Amino acid sequence: MKKLRWAMDSGGFWELDLSTPITLNGQARPVPGDPLPLGLSRGSRLSRFQQIDFFQRFMAMPFVPSFAANRGLLLQRVLSLPIAENWSAMLLGQLNVQRFVSSLRKNKTKHLPDSSWLQSIRRNFIQKSFYALGFCSELFLTPDDTLIISLDAYGDEKVPQKRAVLHHKASMYEL
């Protein structure tokens, strides 16, 4: 029999998390009945925060580019804060590059001196609608239990998204 994290063959019911740049924490659940892409038939063991932290540390990428259809080109950066041996926190910052560039083009006039062009860039950089900020705290309660608390705030949305997840590793058994 297949393991629990694999999809059932007959019903098309999926219980997997996908890694996606659409949300700050990088996880989304597909709609039952919609097929998963072939490369995503099994969920990632790392959160989006951990994936970006890996890229920054071991691949020397100061900013990790991502693309989401509804948000466009994004640059993401993670600050990792180890609090204790079993507790860590991560802060993720995200810049919507596509929205920023389109705003610059919209505000641009044909004959601007260089100083006003720089002022226009500065004015656009302080707009909150281009940014998103995420905070994730991961606490290892036992070797089998992990508590993850996250808070995501987008500049163009008023209400931040909050989430708490308790992961428990099931023992290996046959069904």
TrEMBL record:
<dbReference type="GO" id="GO:1990052">
    <property type="term" value="P:ER to chloroplast lipid transport"/>
</dbReference>
<dbReference type="GO" id="GO:0034196">
    <property type="term" value="P:acylglycerol transport"/>
</dbReference>
<protein>
    <submittedName>
        <fullName>PDE320</fullName>
    </submittedName>
</protein>
<dbReference type="InterPro" id="IPR044160">
    <property type="entry name" value="TGD4-like"/>
</dbReference>
<dbReference type="GO" id="GO:0070300">
    <property type="term" value="F:phosphatidic acid binding"/>
</dbReference>
